[in-house]
Give the backbone structure.
Amino acid sequence: MSRRPPVVSASCPSAPLPVALLVLASLLAAAPAAGQEASPDVEFLNAGTVLPADLPFSEAVRVDDTLYLSGMVGVVPGTDSLVAGGIGPEARQTLENIEAVLRAHGSSLDRVVKCTVFLADIGEWDAFNQVYRTFFSDPYPARSALGADGLALDARVEVECTATAGSR
């Protein structure tokens, strides 16, 4: 939390010059140096809407107005059990979980700017895309997709996203 310097009115003729200099010095000390930016506001977020609370990571991290979501798999919310049925149902549940996490933290799917998709079998890329298109529309977020040798809970798909969250 930043400290606010005392406010002294420039139109106050009774303010002694040393007070005005102290105010100016405190303003300069609080301002970032030339070429430096203020440090970002960082929050580690766990709404508990999808993932069990005892996992050793945050479901999302907010840096200023950007949300970075941890990778999500197709678990039934509140459990560590994958939905049954393979890539189609898992992809749908994964994206529903992402949507719930975004909503819990002041964002939505239409504010997603980047997704990274990990597939247990890159041959299921087309099947994943069929589901993905029901959650996102043109203009689509930037995206990377790759085959992975093993995903958490033996999932068929894991997706992580970055989204804007707007100002608080």
Q: What stands out?
A: Residues 2 and 167 are 18 Å apart (CA to CA).
